[in-house]
Amino acid sequence: MENQQIFRYDEPFKLESGQWLPEFQLAYTTFGQLNAAMDNVIWVCHAFTGNANPTDWWNGLIGEKRLYNPTEHFIVCANIIGSHYGSTNALSKNPISGEPYYHDFPFISIRDVVRSLDLLRQHLGIYKINTILGGSLGGQQALEWAVLQPDLIENMILFSTNAIHSPWGIAFNESQRMAIAADPTWIERSPKAGMNGMKVARSIALLSYRNYATYNRTQSRDEGQIDFFRANTYQNYQGEKLGKRFNAFSYWTLSKMFDSHDVGRGRGKVEEVLGTIKSKTLVIGISSDVLFPPEEQEFIARHIPDAKYALINSLYGHDGFLIEFEAMTDTIKNWSKDLIKGVLSE
What region holds the AB hydrolase-1 domain (predicted)? Predict the structure, then answer.
C-alpha cells in the first residue's frame, strides 16, 4: 500500500534565479520498507503533469507484481515544487502576504527541484539510491541529480529525455504559454485563471507527444467525412480532461522549468559534465518521439561513462515511455542481467 505524506521545509529556500521561497512543502509517496542494509531505494521522478503516486501513471513498471514492487523495494516519489498535487505551487498561500502567490510565484528550475528533492531524501534518512527512474521532465531531474551528487545514485534509468532542452522543445512550450496568455482571464488572481488557454495549450502539446502516424492510426477519418472528425473530438477531450485536474499556473511554471534544463550551465561543456556521472546508466529512447528525438538519448549515453542505450520501436511517440511497459521492462531486465554478469566477471 502507498503511504502519502507531506515534507515541510520551514526555512527560506534560495532558488537558482536568486529569488527565495519563504518555505515549501513536498507531497510524497512511499511504497514498501527500507531494508536493514538501506540499499533497496527506488526513486521515481515524475513527468510534466504527473503526481507523487507512480502507480497512477507508470503502473506497468511500479506496483504489486511489477518490476519495481513494494515487497522488494522502498519506492519513493515526490510531487515537485510548482506542480498541482500537494506541493508548494502558485495557488499555495504565500506566508509573507497571506494570499496565494498566483503570478508572483517565482521561477523554478530543474536544479531547484533537485535540491528540494535532496532535502526530502535527507529527511527520510536515505544515504544511497539504488536506482533512480525518470522520463521526460522526470529524466531531466534524475540526470541533474546524478551530476549534482555523483556518489549518491548507483543506477540510473532515463526515458525519453535530454541533457539540455532543445530550441524545438522550448518553441513548443512557448506556443503553449502563448495560448494561456491569450486567455483574457489569465491576468486574474484566481485559481481558474487561464483555464481555457491551458486547454488549448494541452491540445498543442498532444501534437508533440504523438505524431503523424499515431493520429492516422488512432484518430482516423471515415470515408467521405467532411466534418466532426475524431481528431477534433480528441483534441478537445484532452484539453477538457486536463482542465479537470490541473491549473494554468502550474502548467506555466513547469513548462518554464522544462526550458531551464541544461546540465552544463555554469559547469562547462555538456559532454564533459555528463562524463562526471558515476551512476551505471541505461538510456531508453522511443523511435517515433518527435519532442525528445532518439538522438538526444543517444547523446546522453555516448557521454556518460559505460552507459547503455536502447531504442524501443513504438507508434506512440513521446508518450511511448508511458505506454510501452512490456518493452521497457524487458529492456531493463536485460540491462540488469548484463550488469550482474559484468560484476561477476570482474
Answer: 41-321
Judged against a pLDDT cut of 60, whether residue 1 lies above it is answered with no
pTM score of the predicted model: 0.96
CATH of 169-258 among 3.30.1360.180, 3.40.1180.10, 1.20.210.10, 1.10.1740.110: 1.10.1740.110
* Gap between the Cα atoms of 274 and 263, Å rounded: 8
319 annotated as ligand-binding: yes
DSSP letters, 102-139, are GGGPPP--HHHHHHHHHHHHHHTT---EEEEEEETHHH
Q: What is the distance between the alpha carbons of residues 244 and 183, in angstroms, rounded to a whole number?
A: 17
- Grid coordinates representing 80 are 515537485
Grid coordinates of 280 = 551505471
DSSP code, position 86: S
pLDDT tens column, 145-197: 999 999 999 999 999 999 999 999 999 999 999 999 999 999 999 999 999 99
Q: 79: helix, coil or strand?
A: coil
116 three-state secondary structure: helix
For residues 20 and 25, give the distance between their C-alpha atoms in angstroms, rounded to a whole number: 14
200: nearest Cα among 228, 176, 234? 176
